[in-house]
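Weekend entry, working from home. Most of the wet-lab plans are on hold until the incubator is repaired, so I used the time to fold the two sequences that have been sitting in the queue since the last round of cloning. Logging both here for the record. First:
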Amino acid sequence: MQVEQKKQADAYTAIQVVYTKTTADIAAKTTLVGTYTAAEKAEQAKLVTAQATVTDATAKAAAAKKIVATLTSLIPALKEAAAKSDLAVAQAKTDQQLVAAVTQLKVIVAAREATFAASTKAATTETARLKTAQALVVATQGAIATAKTNLANTQKAITALKATMTAQQAQVAAAKAATD
């Protein structure tokens, strides 16, 4: 009789240990659900920022490229006009209005050259920024997909563990009743 009681007590202890482990596993998986949910939310926020950067960089790069395209053909014509104006000034050095007009033309040419240089640099910078943001969008979308997959798998595991736990509860009750 004592041997049988010992077996029943051992069986009860064993199923209780398994049940306790299942409970701990559920708690750990539940914590993971929170972690994966937070990770997904963080990645969603990154995605919004990256998409805004893509939009902004696209607009800025396009604007800079438009200026570069316009000035690419304009600057040589302005330089040629300034060179011809210098010849006219050389022939009429005393005409102050002509000197002032040529000086103003040179200021305009210098300003357009500066704008061209700045726009060329902006086009390059914004294009690089655009590529970086596009890569971040792709990476972030991948991270979101991974977080969603991890979340779904963890939730499935919790469901399976809860089903196992229900069966274990019945086993614990039966083992407990056998020891009483």
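Second, folded right after the first finished:
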Amino acid sequence: MEILQFFLSISIGSVKSIIPLATMVEILDWCEASQRDLLAESKHAAEGEQVIDLQLLCDDIVHELRGAKPGIAVHVHGGSSHAVFGRVLLVGEVVRRAIEAVAARVGGEGHVTVTILDETAGPSLWIRASGQPAQTVDAVALERFRDAAMGAGVAILPDATGPNSAGLVLRLPGRICTGG
């Protein structure tokens, strides 16, 4: 905003002699874009949201689970060029419960892979476990996972292996910023 006020305070003749007109237009466009970004970020902050780094969030959850669930080996792959706005604690709870639910589908032990998918509509998380699906799954834990996802605005979709398999996709809310 100070740059814009500076340009408005000096005469057009003196600006033309200092800065080419095309450069002035580029600077003003940049100022306008920056102001839009700041307004959008302040709106998200007022709603209790922040930019979520999915790689960092998933890595933190994997570290947490390593101590709490030593029978589950979790690996994170992929990445996204989009940043997602959301309530990091809610989204983190959904991801943690999703990993636990997928691991429970193969008996609570084994290898779980979390892949961050960079899709046009925004990033998604594909979470899958290797192994044969278990005969029974803790219905209460599954309900808690579904409730957490609903509360965070995260959609749960079956992966390519279909419903009731050892994999799922979390479609994150559409609050995406392109600033990455």
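Plan for Monday: verify the second prediction. Strands lie at 50-52, 72-78, 83-86, 110-119, 122-129, 155-158, 167-171, 176-177.
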